Amino acid sequence: MITLPAFIECRDFKQLQKKLQYLKEHNEKATSQQSQLSKNIIEIYQSGKIGILEKQLLRSMKIINRLDEAELKWMDTELRIDYLTNKTTKQMHSDAVVLQNYLNKGNSLKTFLGLKLIWSRAVRKSYYITREVYVNGNPCNTPQSLKWVVNDLRLRQDFRILEQIWRSGSIVGNCHYLRYSFFKKTLLQVIDLITTIQTAEQVRREIQKTTNILIRPFEQTCRVAVGGKMVCLTQKEAKIVEYSIKDLIHHPT
After folding, report:
1. How confident is the prediction for the chain on average, in pLDDT?
2. Cβ atoms within 10 Å, residue 135
3. Counting C-beta atoms within 10 Å of the first and last residue's C-beta, which end of the chain has fewer, N or C?
4. C-alpha to C-alpha distance for 87 and 91, rounded to whole angstroms
5. Residue 76's domain spans which residues?
6. CA 213 to each of CA 46, 115, 226, 234: distance values in angstroms, whole numbers, following the listed order
7. Same domain, 81 and 150
């Protein structure tokens, strides 16, 4: 006959030990990762903001999934884009799109014959792109060069968003493929960590549902209210017994 540890109410102690072992392994896997990313995710989860974390993950995956590895490698090796302006990436992208749309409609950016006078205000405001942005040493004033600049600026904005979401800091260098690889690896780590945490939480809730044990997320100990239900844990007069999860796992059966 199995002798249960004092005050623990459980119908199948061997099954409880298996669940505790499973919980312990998943908690250790989640907390053993010493990266700042892992610590941030655990902190978010403990604060009850898992919904925000999931939205951040979905937004990040949307960015990464629309990128093409081959195109990024080509841009890194074949394009050199120089920005000789102090305008923000967001502003430059918006202005480059204005010029790109203007040229795609069959218009010209040449300034002779007074053409500049009939340009819209948006085109005139964006014209600096043709003088302060160079693609492979040439002014950015053709549909193709504007396409490359628009793509480059969009990528810079996307990676900046990812840096802010995952608090990664700026990645040194202008290699798009390096940034892409870094964040793709980061998202895989995030997915793995979230899966580990959610699995551990499911087991933790099952244990609490079928026993009188209370286990807080990521803790190595559990608590039992003597002579009462779990609600007694919130009452000052309740006597609390604390067990090491490790000791319960190895309790003789």
Report:
1. 86
2. 20
3. N
4. 6
5. 68-174
6. 19, 80, 10, 14
7. yes
Q: Are 205 and 121 contained in the same domain? A: no
CB atoms under 10 Å from CB of 126, counted, come to: 22
| Residue 3: both structure tokens together | 């002798």
Whether residue 25 lies inside any domain: the answer is yes
pTM of the model: 0.78
Residue-level pLDDT at 100:
96
User: What is the tens place of the pLDDT at every residue in 115-152?
Assistant: 566 788 999 999 999 999 999 999 999 999 999 999 99
- 214 and 170: one domain? no
- Look at the chain and report how many structural domains it folds into: 2
Q: Is 173 left (phi over 0), alpha (psi -120 to 50) or beta?
A: left
Give the residue, 210 or 5, on which the prediction is more confident.
210
pLDDT class for 171, splitting at 50, 70, 90?
low
